[in-house]
Amino acid sequence: MKTIDVALIGGGIMSATLGALLQRLEPEWSIEVFERLPDVAQESSNPWNNAGTGHAALCELNYTPEGPDGTISPAKAVEINEQFQVSRQLWASLVEDGFLPDPSAFISATPHMSFVWGEANVDYLRRRYEALKDEPLFEGMEFSTDVRVIREWAPLLVPGRRKDQPIAATRITSGTDVDFGALTRLMFAGIERGGARMRTGKEVQGLRRGKDGLWTLRLRDEVGRTPSRVRARFVFVGAGGGALHLLQRSGIPEARGFGGFPITGEFLRTDDPAIVERHLAKVYGKASVGAPPMSVPHLDTRVVDGETSLLFGPYAGFSPKYLKTGSNLDLFTSIRLHNLYPMIRAGLANLGLVSYLAGEVLSTKDKQMEALREFVPNAKASDWRLIQAGQRVQVMKRDAKKGGVLQFGTEIVTGADGTIAGLLGASPGASTAAPIMLTILERCFPDRFAGWRGEVERLVPSFGVRLNDDREVARESMARTAQVLGIDAPRVDAMGAEPEAARASITA
């Protein structure tokens, strides 16, 4: 039986990022990637399956919740932005190294906006702006309640709206749109050139650690169903919704107590040039009561394979599948004695979410259009079509006080001996792939990491420091990555106004 150094399970952005890092840190190591589907980037990393297209907390309101006393802390938003800057630095370094080709294939400059209506929400957004505007990583954020300014920023948001309706928006022009499908494919192509072996159409059905410390992976070809085995010194389980089952089968105690709650997503999409050319931004609003953070409504400019479209959503729903191409038995076969109680407790504590999802499942096209018209009052149903997004699996985990909690975000699970690691959960996910993978390397290879640190700091110059603590350092870092990635060109608003002109007319 063949033995390899690294087995990467799953053909998404996480495995691609870890593979790229390991190949630079240990170029002699043998790496093999196992993906069940015929090609990589077909599940959560597919650009039409995910909404994680440059999450930097510039516009996502769920990262700045309002406290019981009305205060708004910038801490979580700053943390997410710091993580996204690490990803940007890694991508820029890989472009400079020639590992990644023309960055316009996967990233483009796109302003990020928050948009709300109603007096209470306008007041909230004003306080959020005050909490963030002086943070170095949020430099350049603008706020306005002026209808004319907001129409310059995003022309589709205003026409048809009641004139007496209070509205407000923030904008920051340094935002981006990232095609993680393209980036994933380019990264895998890079590590394949470096000697990694891509094994698509190959399902990992189980894994077990032997007494010699090596992991044996049980494999099966999707075509022909031929079984095989391979041994690996280190295993990364980056299989998205399929990760929970594999971590459970691994037998590591660190995976005990975890469950997963699947949520389906759908979006309305238009490719009509007459509509698309009037909107250049990612615009996030506030989530409905009871909605999970991943369901925050947003109207996004998306650039995929060089073509621009608009997406609105997501509309959440329920399916027991853990993957878009998964099985209806996924949820039920993940239940174990050790996670049953945490899952029940988490479910009882989130009955509002269950009620919300039930309403979303029964939602009609008319109801979906009503939600869109809260953003785009003049939207016509004939211009938009519904597309199915990917599955998201929210983590349910054991909690000492509550018995079980529903956790939003990405959970890193590592074995005690450092020979296996995996990821559970969802957003912000893809946008923070680089810092997540660096955390895994620190946890799993503590004896080697000191020797790797020089190369890590070359790839990610801010590694180990907080950019937000030093305004000049933050400016220099963002300027460097913007230039290398080709996202520093002045943007022209959809109606033709230069950002500087719009800033001059702001009424805060």
From TrEMBL:
Pathway: Carbohydrate metabolism; tricarboxylic acid cycle; oxaloacetate from (S)-malate (quinone route): step 1/1. Gene3D superfamilies: D-Amino Acid Oxidase, subunit A, domain 2 (3.30.9.10), FAD/NAD(P)-binding domain (3.50.50.60). It is an enzyme of class 1 (oxidoreductase). Its cofactor is FAD. The keyword Flavoprotein applies. Transmembrane segments: none annotated. It catalyses: (S)-malate + a quinone = a quinol + oxaloacetate. Its EC number is 1.1.5.4. Belongs to the MQO family. This is Probable malate:quinone oxidoreductase. It comes from Agrococcus versicolor. The gene is mqo.
